[in-house]
Amino acid sequence: MSTAKLLSASAIPFAGGIARAVRLLATVVAVVMLTLVMLTPLELREQVTLSGMLFVVALVIAHLRHRASTLILMVMAITVSARYLAWRISATMSIESLDLLLSAALLFAELYAFLVLALGYFQLSQPIARKPLALPADVREWPAVDVLIPTYNEPLEVVRATILAAQALDWPQDKLRIFVLDDGNRDDFQHFAKDVGVGYFIRHDNHGAKAGNINAALARTDAPFVAVFDCDHVPTRSFLQLTMGWLVEDDRLAMVQTPHHFYSPDPLERNLRVFKTCPNEGELFYGLIQPGNDLWNAVFFCGSCAVIRRAALTDVGGISEETVTEDAHTALRMHRCGWRTAFLGVRQAGGLATESLSGHIRQRVRWARGMVQILRVDNPLFGPGLTWPQRLCYLNGQLYFLSGLPRLIFLTAPLGFFLFNAHIFAAAPVMVLSYALPHLTFTLMTASRIQGGFRRSFWGELYETVLSVYIVLPTILALVNPRLGRFNVTAKGGLIATSYFDWRIAMPFLVLFGLNLAGIVAGLWAASTGRQQLDAVLINVGWATYNLIILSTAIAAAFERQQRRRHARIAPRLPAMVERSCGHTVACELSDLSLSGAALNHAGDEFERGEKLHLTLRLGEESLPLPARVVSTEAGVLRLEFVTLSPERERFLVRVLFCRADSWIRWADDRTLDQPVRSFLDISLCGLRGLKQLVISSTTTRGTHDGKNDCP
User: In this predicted model, what pLDDT tens digit does every residue of 617-643 receive, in sequence order?
Assistant: First the structure.
């Protein structure tokens, strides 16, 4: 080798070392400078000037759509929030006993929120938009898959579509086995499974709940891969073809998780009338958090819509039965053993959301208790096998469910000033604004930038408020004794015969609303009589007014709306044809479709109620007439109800509704990005409607409905 080449080769590691040293030095300098910015105390004018300059810079950066600009906004938001907290600790803590107690309580809530915020920024620093990976061209190389569908107390009507859709999966039939895991041991399930030709397992006890049910099935099956679907999560035909490529390619990949998509509205979406116009509560997790976890190899197993390598499950002793969030705990154990997980953000299954707000809350309480149980019995910060990014991702997921107490502190903090003349901030009101407003503004701006496609501004506060009262005690008890509590199955497929106001669920929100309203009145009266400073009163009035808006929206969510349809309606864009008994056919535009009926737009023909006809739908080259009768026809909309369908026609209808590869791909394509002002107005209008309904409900005779109170 020539001298020149030797010198060139030796220069490469030297140059690399210089580059690493420069990056390290730049990082140290940046950290030192940011620390100085965070900790340096400023007088009012300097603080306002600094905040104004940073805000102008942030506005300029916010117009750039590069990922680097988002990271810069995160750093700026952390810096401004850290400045606020440093000032809070150093300059606002009173020495008076009551003032100090209330101020410390608020500081605890603020520190908790800052910790979750910082961990969230880390978690979402670079979400991965993972794409499907091609399978081997030779189908003979595709592995066998066992599809497990656990069920306990759900009606067969809910589970039928999932079973039929699993049979329609595009996978070699000799390598696909489907098993219904019936922990309810029901004859109708056994007969249906036999009729359609799928496996059926029961147990003599329900030990371990869902986790135990799956583990019992794992002991009786042997395919190298296992796909798990909750009994109401209906897979598309392409589910396995899109997910299995990564598992075939990487023999250390334990799991591929896909989103949980819901084609029916959850209680907040239905009761607040925002279904499909506002992102579902879970869209932030599956649209942003799981892709963020994917960067750090920290994707959680979510209990359904996932494929898992049997070897990984065997390595960790099966699905975890120690906590009620068996899914996330199982993923944590697999990560400890060195397995990798992945998230494919393509909606490949559709499920049913909970029907009532009380059921929605019970489900979230179980999640909260389970995640806190994991924090206690298998804390991710300790123990072997995890990288630090994995530890932080798991920690953030668990800390989120401890938000109940901090949220209640935020909802009641102004009352200390209004009712007890306690000064939470031992500082001039104008100084409070000069530090607090930049902190809140930058947090809101950055959250809107990061989450704008998956959650509207201020809706996170609503979700936390709805849960706050109900998760405080279970999470505290789980911290004290993680063995308390049991697994509760989330009911699906229920109906709401009559609209009613759930007074029992809403009572905590009504109490908090009344306290904040009373505090505002007391504060304004004290200011008018000169007993309290007007500027301090106005700051707390603004705070309490914001609480009233959030609480009124929570109250509105407790107005359960009538739900009489047995099946949720979906709007697939497919050609349709109506064939009348006389042989005449009418081309129609399909408006919506369900397992029990359809609505079509038509022009020309007149139909009579009760008339029998056939609705013909086309799926690719396949079409099949479905017998139906006319329920109503008005304003050019023809509503049909299917009569008894043969097994062949039921299978076809399930494939049309749920199994198309593009069934859910474009579900929310027409949504616009978040606009904080518009979002605030929307949530305020929801709250006003809720208060109006409350007044109407309170002035009518209060009857009962299934133990709850009706409202008109």
Answer: 888 888 889 999 998 888 778 899 999
Query: 186 and 112, same structural domain?
Result: no
CA distance 595 to 617: 13
pLDDT in tens, 660-685: 988 898 887 778 889 999 999 999 99
Instruction: Identify the bridge partners of residue 709 per DSSP, sorted by sequence position.
Output: 501, 704
Q: Look up the pTM and report it.
A: 0.90
Q: How confident is the model at residue 497 (pLDDT cuts 50, 70, 90)?
A: low
Range of the domain at 23: 1-32
Pick the catalytic residue from 99, 182, 183, 294.
Answer: 183
Q: Is 183 a catalytic residue?
A: yes
Handedness of CA 249, 255, 258, 264 (dihedral sign): positive
Q: Can you tell me whether residue 639 is helix, strand or coil?
A: strand
Among this protein's residues, is 662 annotated catalytic? no
Question: Of 294, 327, 502, 674, which is the active-site residue?
Answer: 327
Whether 273 maps to a domain, the answer reads yes
Q: Are residues 332 and 442 in the same domain?
A: no
Examine the domain organization and report whether 206 and 72 are in the same domain: no
Q: Pick the last residue of a domain from 612, 628, 659.
A: 659
| DSSP summary character for residue 454 | T
CA 567, chain centre distance (Å): 22
How far, in Å, are 271, 360, 690 from residue 704 at the CA level? 19, 21, 20
Confidence of residue 704 (pLDDT cuts 50, 70, 90): very low
Evaluate whether 128 touches 95 at the Cβ level (below 8 Å): no
DSSP secondary structure string, 609-627? TT-EEEEEEEETTEEEEEE
Residues 47 and 118 both lie in one domain? yes
CATH code: domain of residue 156: 3.90.550.10
Contact 316, 328 (CB under 8 A): no
Percent of the chain with pLDDT over 90: 66
Whole-angstrom Cα distance, residue 335 to residue 386?
A: 6
Report yes or no on 702 lying in a domain.
Answer: no
Based on the fold, state whether residues 63 and 16 are members of the same structural domain: no
For residue 309, the cross-strand partners are: 225
DSSP string, 34-66: HHHHHH----HHHHHHHHHHHHHHHHHHHT--S
Contacts of 198 (CB under 8 A, 6+ apart): 163, 166, 167, 178, 179, 180
